[in-house]
Design goal:
Shape: globular
Number of domains: 1
Distance between the termini: 45 Å
Radius of gyration: 17 Å
Largest sheet: none
Order of helices and strands: HHHHH
Strand content: under 5%
Structural class: mainly alpha
Length: about 180
């Protein structure tokens, strides 16, 4: 099942809170990136993408999806919004990795993190492509939840390590 479907159960409030809190933390991290790293266009673009991703995750919480059994053209307005925010997250997450990779490649202080950033972007891209394929009936459809989790765990782990590196200032030397 999709991660978002956890919002539908009797403890759905936990998943809704998870979306809101996670999204808010990503928005705050984006602000930190924007304020601390302002010496290049790629940092600003990356911080902007993180802001959009964070806001989209946050907004996905209160706009709960309908059960997957509801046909597309019969969904509620909040389900359409939920899916729209989800499309933004899954489309922009790999792009944000590639944007930061572009900067990490040229900044000596961050070269140590470029390999994982590239890997995270490639895994996200492959996962999103597999997720689109899994949406077709009869294909990888039974694995849609697993594929989605691969994408999310990959991206969230990358974000957590990026945030930790920023927090402990694990950068060495001048640009």
């Amino acid at each position: 099942m999709f991660v978002s479907a956890l919002s539908l159960g009797p403890r759905g409030g936990i998943q809704i809170a998870n979306f809101v809190i996670s999204g808010a933390l990503i928005v705050l991290f984006a602000r930190r990136i924007a304020s601390e790293f302002n010496e290049g266009k790629l940092w600003r673009v990356g911080a902007g993408l993180l802001s959009i991703i964070g806001f989209s995750i946050l907004a996905s919480g209160p706009f709960v999806m309908d059960p997957v059994s509801v046909p597309f053209f019969e969904m509620s307005w909040h389900s359409y919004l939920h899916y729209a925010f989800g499309v933004l997250v899954f489309s922009l997450a790999p792009v944000s990795c590639f944007i930061f990779f572009g900067h990490f490649r040229t900044d000596r202080r961050w070269r140590w993190f470029q390999g994982w950033t590239l890997a995270a972007g490639l895994i996200m891209t492959a996962s999103v492509a597999a997720l689109k394929g899994a949406m077709l009936p009869g294909s990888l459809h039974p694995y849609v939840g697993l594929i989605q989790r691969v994408a999310l765990v990959d991206y969230m782990a990358w974000l957590a390590c990026f945030g930790l590196a920023v927090a402990v200032k694990r950068v060495s030397g001048p640009t």
